[in-house]
Specification:
CATH class of the largest domain: Alpha Beta
Number of domains: 3
Distance between the termini: 53 Å
Largest sheet: 10 strands, mixed
Oligomer: single chain
Helix content: 40-55%
Strand content: 15-25%
Structural class: alpha/beta
Radius of gyration: 22 Å
CATH architecture of the largest domain: 3-Layer(aba) Sandwich
Shape: globular
Length: 322
């Protein structure tokens, strides 16, 4: 390549880079949508709205939460992939996103390749709980009871949910004869747990805390490396004698993979500043969660590990959705 062509090529490259950087700096110039693949009122929706309101204040543009539930999280995810790759459609989702690649036979998108991880904002541990009608208050008591009474039930908000798969892993590791009872969401499952129609469940701490504090359900063990202040008397699985058993649902922000890297980084920087504030940290802790606030690089590495872990759980459980 001669010198003139080399210079021309360099100028074109510089122009493209300068253009994307200028676009990122100007962003946003119109409303931004955060797609949430769940109905309004759940933890994902609450966190998206908390972050979205603060982003709206920071950006001077409306940030609209668009609830797109259905087909697990596939309907919401697909709408993000099909949207223009300009950063004006973001995606707040959970561990279900990494589960879907193994759970569904056919997806119109790739949960890993078609999305760019922006930030893992927070995690909420799962806690193993039992109906007060079950004569077990500790992990060892529960295991002993389940061995003596095969067929103890465990509920979940649906086949292939993190709660279901965590129960399947627990069943596999303890060699207990447990029966999975799937529901259509947390609310009906918790209602039956409170009424004793289902005996045990892995529940997100945010959903379980009010019932644990009121004594309506018994907290057996927390699937987390350390105790949580909100229920500081509840031991971790490791403390209860089952070392290293951990599970959580997480909340992360994505864009489509085609969004320019400079813009992805700008969104991360702005989200990171907001998530780090004492106000947001306190609100997340109030629902039993912990702030993570990871970078796109760290979140990407986390996603790779999660995908492998949940793929193993899906295989153990035998769960599959057409």
């Amino acid at each position: 390549m001669n010198l003139s062509k080399l210079c021309a090529s360099a100028l074109v490259t510089f122009g493209v880079l300068s253009g994307t950087q200028a676009f990122a700096q100007a962003y946003p110039t119109k409303p931004v949508t955060i797609v949430v693949p769940y109905a309004a009122g759940g933890a994902t929706d609450v966190i998206a709205r908390m972050v979205g309101q603060k982003l709206s204040d920071k950006w001077g543009q409306p940030v609209i939460v668009n609830n797109r539930p259905g087909a697990g999280t596939a309907i919401g995810a697909e709408s993000v992939v099909r949207a223009p790759a300009d950063g004006y459609t973001l995606y707040m989702t959970t561990a279900a996103h990494t589960i879907s690649a193994s759970l569904y036979k056919k997806l119109s998108y790739d949960p890993i390749k078609d999305f760019a991880p922006i930030s893992l904002t927070s995690v909420v541990p799962l806690v193993l709980v039992a109906s007060p009608k079950l004569p077990a208050h500790t992990l060892q008591e529960l295991i002993q009871y389940a061995k003596a009474n095969p067929g103890v039930t465990y509920g979940s908000p649906g086949n292939g949910s993190p709660q279901h798969l965590t129960g399947a892993l627990f069943k596999s590791q303890t060699k207990l004869d447990l029966i999975h009872v799937p529901y259509k969401g947390d609310a009906p499952m918790l209602n039956d747990l409170l009424g004793g129609q289902v005996q045990t469940a892995f529940v997100t701490l945010s959903a379980a805390i009010p019932h644990i504090k009121s004594g309506k359900i018994n907290a057996i063990a927390l699937a987390h490396p350390k105790r949580i202040d909100a229920i500081d008397k509840v031991p971790t699985f490791t403390e209860a004698g089952m070392s290293g058993f951990e599970a959580a649902t997480w909340f992360g922000l994505f864009s489509s993979a085609s969004v320019p890297a400079d813009l992805q980084n700008k969104i991360y920087q702005d989200v990171s500043t907001i998530v780090a504030t004492p106000e947001i940290r306190g609100k997340i802790q109030d629902i039993g969660g912990e702030i993570v606030n990871s970078s796109p690089m760290n979140f990407s590495a986390f996603i790779q590990k999660e995908s492998k872990r949940w793929a193993e759980a899906v295989q153990i459980s035998g769960a599959q959705v057409d």
